[in-house]
Amino acid sequence: MLxxxxxxxxxxxxxxxxxxxxxxxxxxETGRKPYLVKASDIAKELRRxxxxxxxxxxxxxxxxxxxxxxxxxxxxxFLKSIYDAFGGKLDGGLKFRIGNSYYFEIEDGNITYEKIxxxxxxxxxCVDNALVIGxxxxxxxDAMKIFEEKKMEDVRLLFQYNYRPVxxxxxxxxxxxxxxxxxxxxxxxxxxxxxxxxxxGALLVLPESDDDTLVTYKEPGDKFFNIHxxxxxxxKQLKINTVGKLNEEISLGxxxxxxxxxxxxxxxxxxDVAAKIQQSGxxxxxxxxxxxxxxxxxxxxxxxxxxxxxxxxxxIACDDFFKERVETPKLPNGExxxxxxxxxxxxxxxxxxxxxxxxxxxxxxxxxxxVGTKIFSKxxxxxxxxxxxxxxxxxxxxxxxxxxxxxxxxxxVYISALTEVSIDNANRIATSDLRLIRRLVRDARTRxxxxxxxxxxxKDVRVGEENNIFxxxxxxxxxxxxxxxxxxxVLKIKALPMLYKLSEDAEVGExxxxxxxxxNYFLGVDTDIIPKHSLIREFIGGGALDVG
Length: 548
Hints:
Elements: E1 2-6, E2 9-13, H1 19-30, E3 36-39, E4 42-44, E5 55-59, H2 64-85, E6 92-98, E7 101-106, H3 113-128, E8 134-139, H4 140-149, H5 153-160, E9 166-172, E10 175-177, E11 194-198, E12 201-205, H6 222-237, H7 243-251, H8 255-280, E13 284-288, H9 295-308, E14 312-317, H10 346-357, E15 365-368, E16 373-376, E17 387-392, E18 410-416, H11 431-446, H12 451-468, E19 478-481, H13 487-502, H14 509-519, H15 537-540
Parallel strand pairs: 1-5, 13-17, 13-18, 14-17, 18-19
Antiparallel strand pairs: 1-2, 3-4, 3-5, 6-7, 7-12, 8-9, 9-10, 11-12, 15-16
Helix pairs in contact: 2-3, 4-5, 5-7, 8-9, 11-12, 11-13, 13-14
């Protein structure tokens, strides 16, 4: 018999008991269905066996790790359904995520409405039949042969440049994939989803809130979809759209060419934004985006391009218009809420911008975060006909920020870091993970922030983004992707030492391990070759732009 602690109760169970058996009994008693368990502070699949002296608790859909496992498993089943619907002749591919939807396409083809109906029928049948998701471990050489036989070239390349003596493959019936991460026990757990025809492909829509039965479809914004699609397609055209292909370019000594090409492509995009601003004739440029999207470096790069067009840019930080500390709203826990738009002195900001438009002089504020007050410049400031104000901040696309300014006066730019590189057609790399790693590296370097604090705060940062930034991204005149194809290989060198130290931490260890696993897929590179003006310099340091 095994002694365990289950949901704070000490019990005995027979040797060989699985977590699934415990979960099944729990569901009979409570009517609530666990998806995973947390055992010894690690999230585990229900198929695994209980160990002696373990402390076990059940995980439900209100857990982020369960949401990730649900999505991973649904993607796996959806790919199988596409494969079966096309008679095993075409394999689908996950391109990217938009909100609670995942966008799939097939190679050189179109997923028709008729095929959507067939895919959904196959998916439903698998859910009804509760197909157990298998796991088989292979020595690396045997796994590489399987990858060749099944034409899984992206995965073969991935492990060609990654030391892994044993590789685990997952299967639903005879459909086999490499899946990066935890999965649910069987397909019966995927009852709640939606499938929609979209563009040339299909959207798999999953529960977004903590309620696993609530599936809400939101039409993807055209602007956000297009910028993501353009970025992924560009990487695909270069044949560097997966980690394995990127690693191969690095191993062949082509990294220098890749950096020059990527930076040139991004520089052209910034030049195009500058040209559109000039053509618009607008005096205000508002730049918004989520944390670590590269807003500051983008704004500085944009200024140089505007100067080349004989415009005179002036950067202003929205944060300098914070309310006095005594007026700052607070969170329920008593901490100051700097993420809400109500923390901004909107009256002062609007008055300042209107006076500038009218050709008047103003005295600009600089917010002293240590003291919590605005300090006004003693030097007056005004703008002439060729001057452009660049206002940067997380709320800059929210119309509530500038109710007294005509929209005809504002050119809005939304910036984010949308990863072009994936592991393969079944395993994407979350854009939020790229931004988290950027923030981890930057905050440790410039703000002396403990890496653990960065990881702990990230969930709250993401909530703020969902409320204050993402709802307004379609309001932008231009969307800009700041991600660089090669940057994980650069960030890896800086981030891994910090993450290794946190890998056994009770609070953030699970996140640290997940990021370590992902970063270790990439070959590391020397940062000396990165241009001094590159956006990535804002995070790794050594840049020529004054961005901290």
